[in-house]
Write a structure and sequence with these properties.
By secondary structure, the chain is α/β, with parallel strands linked by helices. The protein is built from 16 helices and 17 strands. Helix 7 runs parallel beside helix 8, helix 9 runs parallel beside helix 10 and helix 14 crosses helix 15. The chain binds pyridoxal-5'-phosphate.
């Protein structure tokens, strides 16, 4: 059972026509070719689950085909479980129930590349020693508070100022990593039954946190090549007036897309008009690999947005330090709400991060060098070994969102597991599945792990059934 949010967004005939692209090129009967192309858009998340399709009458007029062609295509989609007919709502996109791929209970002996993670930067142990030397000054009070130590809040504020966004220390709440920040914001801003706009594909633990707070998710498509589907995003905001929209504007996880500055302005304006709080998860923002001199500033430099940051990628996930940047009234609400879940962030880790933020540009340069080598090795290896795959080379972040050319991601990751490699299949990043034609491959790991992963993928790909014969032969024509 999917948690369909019926009627959240509607795709117009004109927009669908643009997405359908060259569907007529197929040699199949018209209605089957049309159904197949729409099915592909559903499987890839370009038409997110819950999207309402145009009426048959409207679509046939737009496409210049007979009403029977469209009606038969919709019927074929209903039969295959990709469309639901909902009384009063017309034809709504859904995904057929699929067998989920269980996570193994133990990862011992397996190479686990399901996380986009990095080893600690050089110099953490030394910074921890220096921080321990300063700890004496903090031992006289309770040692915990819900907002963070002034020295770290000021260092984080200074980092925003250097990135072109005026910020004072009292706008910062230090959290236990970015995930905690997402969950805390969800708890404060979302009430049961509220809508929350999210990206598809997107960050699955954010989906969990928002759902945990009672949100019904309204997915909006993001792709490697075209970034955010702005028309759908605007429509989702207008139609649902959600209290929150959760976006990753920089090196979006998993596609690697970055939202251009002008689009940030338009999105924030549209959100403000609906009273929607945009939560900009900027966990990846500082993880540029290539030159970022023209990179956009933090989202909140372009309008009203709440920012989430973390040193989980830049320094080390093991420190568990993240933060929220917000206006003072929201900071106060967050601090009041926090004690229901935790009472504060450990002092020593905060002092370690404050030490390293002082030398952050050098740290980031070293990170970029590591990621550049990893990216180039993974991208080259995948392109050489799998010429039929689409392997993007992102300008930042820790992963590449690989197009497999066939809807076999779950099959591939299961086969990879048998070869000792754990990878996150594409559907993990969808709100209700989809993305079976994609797999996320991290490039943040050591060369030896990368080489082992490439070999495992080779064996897995050679071993799986169905690559040569995808479920629907028609689908093969259009992918
Ligand atoms: C987009 C995004 N947000 C949040 C997180 C969680 O970060 P943290 O380790 O700081 O909790 C991650 C980690 O992968 C992420 O990719």
């Amino acid at each position: 059972m999917t948690n369909l949010d019926h009627g959240a967004t509607t795709v117009s005939s004109r927009a669908l026509n643009a997405l359908l692209d060259s569907w007529r090129a197929s040699s199949a009967p018209g209605y089957l070719a049309l159904a197949d192309r729409i099915r592909l858009l559903v499987l890839d998340g370009r038409l997110p689950v819950g999207t309402r399709l145009p009426s048959e009458r409207d679509l046939c007029a737009h496409l210049g085909v007979s009403r029977t062609t469209v009606a038969s295509a919709y019927a074929a989609l209903r039969d295959s479980g990709h469309v639901d007919s909902v009384r009063g709502s017309g034809s709504v996109v859904r995904l057929p129930a699929r067998a989920s791929v269980p996570r193994p209970t133990t990862t011992e002996g397996l190479l686990d590349l399901t996380k986009a993670a990095l080893p600690a930067v050089d110099g953490i142990a030394e910074a921890a020693q220096r921080a321990a030397g300063r700890l004496g000054a903090y031992l006289d009070d309770s040692g915990y508070d819900p907002v963070g130590r002034p020295v770290l809040r000021e260092a984080i504020a200074e980092r925003y100022r250097r990135r072109g966004l005026a910020t004072s220390a009292d706008q910062i709440v230090v959290t236990l990593g970015a995930q905690h920040a997402i969950a805390l914001l969800a708890r404060v801003l979302v009430s049961r039954g509220d809508r929350a706009v999210v990206e598809a594909p997107g960050y699955p633990h954010a989906f969990e946190a928002l759902r945990g707070a009672g949100a019904r998710l309204v997915p909006v498509s993001v792709t490697v090549d075209d970034g955010w589907d702005e028309a759908s995003l605007m429509q989702a905001l207008r139609r649902t007036s959600p209290p929150v929209a959760y976006l990753m504007p920089d090196f979006h996880n998993p596609t690697g897309a970055t939202m251009p500055a002008e689009q940030r302005v338009r999105v924030l304006e549209a959100a403000a008009a609906e009273g929607t709080v945009v939560i900009a998860d900027e966990t990846m923002a500082e993880m540029a690999i290539d030159d970022r001199r023209d990179a956009p500033r933090p989202m909140a430099a372009y309008g009203r947005a709440v920012s989430i940051g973390s040193v989980g990628k830049s320094l080390w996930g093991g420190l568990r330090i993240g933060w929220i940047r917000a206006e003072r009234p929201l900071v106060d609400r967050l601090v009041r709400a926090r004690s229901a879940g935790d009472l504060g962030t450990p002092v020593l880790e905060q002092l370690v991060v404050a030490e390293l933020l002082g030398d952050f540009d050098r740290v980031l340069e070293a990170r970029a060098g590591h990621l550049r080598r990893g990216r180039d090795r993974v991208v080259r290896g995948l392109r050489e070994q799998f010429p039929s795959w689409q392997v993007p080379s992102p300008a930042g972040g820790l992963t590449t969102w690989v197009g497999l050319g066939a809807p076999v991601s779950s099959q591939l990751t299961l086969a990879a597991r048998r070869e000792g490699l754990l990878l996150a299949a594409g559907p993990v990043f969808g709100v209700d599945g989809a993305f079976e034609r994609f797999v996320r491959v991290p490039f943040s790991y050591a060369d030896s792990d990368t080489d082992r992963a490439l070999a495992a993928l080779r064996a897995a790909w050679d071993g799986i059934d169905g690559v040569q014969a995808p479920a629907s032969p028609l689908l093969a024509e259009v992918v």
